Amino acid sequence: MSRLLPTVARSLLGLLFLVFGLNGFLHFLPMPPHPGRAGEFLGALAASGYMFPLIKGTEVVGGALLLSGRLVPLALILLAPVIVNIVAFHLALEPGGYGMLAFIVGLEVYLAWAYRDSFAGVLNPNARPVAGEHAAPQLARARA
Questions:
Q1: Taking CA 52 as the corner, what is the angle to CA 70 and CA 12, rounded to the nearest 5 degrees?
Q2: Is residue 87 situated within a structural domain?
Q3: What whole-number distance in Å separates Cα of residue 55 and Cα of residue 20?
Q4: pLDDT tens for the chain, residues 1 to 144
Q5: Which helix (H) or strand (E) holds 71?
């Protein structure tokens, strides 16, 4: 079961983001109107002309990567700010849907934990750039 759980979680999260990301382009699922500040905010994003395609494109790419099982840590990193904004939107502008929010956040956190070894370099507080080939002779002289 423990070997199957990451695959199930990855597939569920990938499917959610792929479907809702594609819906942003193809409009095959009806979306309810958003009253008040939530509607104003979404209207402003739409009026920018680029924000919705960027967000929905990120969702499609992240979802497809998760479903493919390739570059899963990259997909989790791409989707993390989208998830943070979905949560913030519901907390600040349109309260509700907390069950689905908890489900999505839970899948993301679980998968980040399941793939935690892949994030070692990203979370290294002492990370240093790798010197290019042109810098190798200079580094060798500096170390001597």
A1: 35
A2: yes
A3: 11
A4: 788 999 999 999 999 999 999 999 999 999 899 999 999 999 999 999 999 999 999 999 999 999 999 999 999 999 999 999 999 999 999 999 999 999 999 999 999 999 999 999 888 999 888 876 665 555 555 555
A5: none
Distance CA 24, CA 72 (A): 22
- Residue listed under structure tokens 């989790």: 76
Domain extent for 87: 5-119
Going through 39-109 in order, the beta strands assigned E by DSSP cover none
Tokens for 143, please give them: 């170390």
Residue 130 lies in a domain: no
Is residue 144 one of the residues assigned to a domain? Answer: no
Dist. CA 23–CA 108, nearest whole Å: 21
Q: Are 9 and 114 in contact (CB under 8 A)?
A: yes
Using alpha carbons, list the distances in angstroms from residue 16 to 99, 100, 144: 14, 11, 55
Question: For residue 52, is it within any domain?
Answer: yes
- Amino acid making up residue 122: V
Domain count of the fold of the chain: 1
Instruction: Please count the other Cβ atoms lying within 10 Å of the Cβ belonging to residue 108.
Output: 18
Backbone dihedral region for residue 95 (phi beyond 0: left; psi -120 to 50: alpha; all else: beta) = beta
